[in-house]
Amino acid sequence: MKLKKVLMACAAACAFAAPAMAEGGMFEGALPENWTADVVAAVKYNYYNFHNWQQDGTSNSMWLVTYHADVQGKWKIANWRNLVDIELGQTWTEGFGTRKSADKLFWESMLDFNMTEQVKPYIGNRFETQIMKGYAYSEDENGDEVKTAISSFMDPAYETQVAGIAYIPNDNFSQRIGFANRMTISNGYGFADDPDTEKFEKFKDEPGLESITEVKYAFSDVVNFHSRLWAFVNFEGTDEIDGKWENLLSVQLMPFIELQVGFDMAYDKDLDEDAQYKNMVLFGLTWRWF
Questions:
Q1: Domain with 222 in it
Q2: Which of 30, 67, 164, 220 has a CA that sits 20 to 30 A from residue 194's CA?
Q3: Phi first, then psi: what are they for 270, rounded to 5°?
Q4: Residues of the chain predicted below pLDDT 70
């Protein structure tokens, strides 16, 4: 049964990748001249099965689907940029079952006004949530696993409106700073609740200041690096700082085969008073749409 799933996954990946054989991506030339796009999708799958294997080994499998789109339209008065990031993945390990390894749904839309060539006022909107349920795992008195839901789609969800000034000297660097209104939506798991009140709040509104620093650099035609540093300061005080630093190095080893090395660091006092870290090394099928 598991072998059948592996073969089906490989067949699906090949079917999706086939249209990308054309140089430059599946939809090269489809955009108007004033639009640019960097759109990449990837499928990664690992599978190990051990039966009566005398050497050390544990059966396991992992699948991951990612989609990244950076699309920008440029006009004389303004530029409109849209960022979309989707990540969805799970791992299965014999004896432990299935765990979520990646879950992200992100959309950011920014409108930059061309006041000068490098300094631009901007307005924008950002939406963030997850797709699958998240769980905390523990054991009962008999040693059996207890799985407790702690998050789900739209719980929490974050909606942010921003306005400020951007410094964009070139396509490889940008610095934004401005006012932001960050809204947290959580109907059941308490991410928006204030523990100091008796009422259970499902919505939280936080005005503050936001900073976004982005760096992109192409070492060559096959090696690219992208870093994004986001920070939000609630007007209530400096101890209300949230932040996320995302780094990704991509190496195109051969057509449709890519190696990705990433490091993420995040801090959100509402989730945990300690910083969170994530490292990843991914290898798999990747194809470019633009």
A1: 2-51+58-288
A2: 164
A3: -70, -25
A4: 1-25, 237-239
